[in-house]
Amino acid sequence: MIYVEDIKDIFKEISVLINDNKDFLCQLDGSLGDGDIGITLSKGFTAINTTSLEYKEQDIGTLLLSYGMVMAEKAPSTMGTLLASAFLKTGKQFKGQDHLTLNGLVTFLDTMAQGIKERGKAELGDKTVLDSLIPAWETLKISAENNESFQQAFEKAYKSADEGMKNTINMKSRKGRAARYLDDSIGKQDPGATVGALFIKGILNYVTKNQTKLEISNTKG
């Protein structure tokens, strides 16, 4: 099971990865956007960590809602806004829940993707964060159906996210500022998809470090 404290620590792992890759993300974004995605998201996830320290309830939904509001305030960029929308939507989805099973995490990723779709009007194949997030969700769903452990499931989900991220190199950007580059965007890895892959890697890192602590549940929930 995944509880509020696990969610907090998962976001710490994601924050570490975003900070460690801040310059790389800015480099990718400089080829297709404003070049500040690493800086703004670093600020956003750092603020989320502060929110985690202040949050004392056991409601996962309320925690995620607070993450969404903080991200919207501290990272007022395109990617920050998309992630804020994703967290707000997941917050509403899980309001009142104090734990998540693997099936709950499947719903979590699906709800994140839906929030991003609604805000950004993008779909799979548009060369966005969805091109890493959706493959991860699809793979995680299969793992949950096969009653795999969190470790097995997120190893496979990250592999799919990483492949989806790399696939954006051969895609044409269709949304946001990157769409201005038209065919010139082909050959460049999408920074948003890279963020999506780092997000899944953060979850995997947490699961890997806490295999013995986590209760592996195959109950659909």
Describe this structure in words.
- With 221 residues, the protein is mainly α.
- Helix content is 67%, strand content 2%.
- It has helices at 4-20, 22-32, 37-54, 60-74, 78-93, 102-120, 130-145, 150-167, 191-209; strands spanning 2-3, 99-100.
- A two-stranded antiparallel sheet has the order 1-2.
- Helix 5 (78-93) crosses helix 6.
- It is globular and about 45 Å long.
Features:
single chain; 221 residues; mainly alpha; two-stranded antiparallel ribbon; 9 helices; 2 strands; 67% helix; 2% strand; disordered C terminus
Short summary:
The protein is an all-alpha fold and 221 residues long. Helices cover 67% and strands 2% of the residues. It starts with a strand and ends in a 12-residue tail after the last helix.
Structural class: mainly alpha
Main beta-sheet strand count, sense and barrel state: 2 strands, antiparallel
Question: How much of the sequence is in beta strands?
Answer: under 5%
Mean model confidence by pLDDT = 91
Distance between the termini: 11 Å
Largest beta sheet: strand ordering: 1-2
Shape: globular
Number of strands: 2
Proportion of helical residues: 55-70%
Order of helices and strands: EHHHHHEHHHH
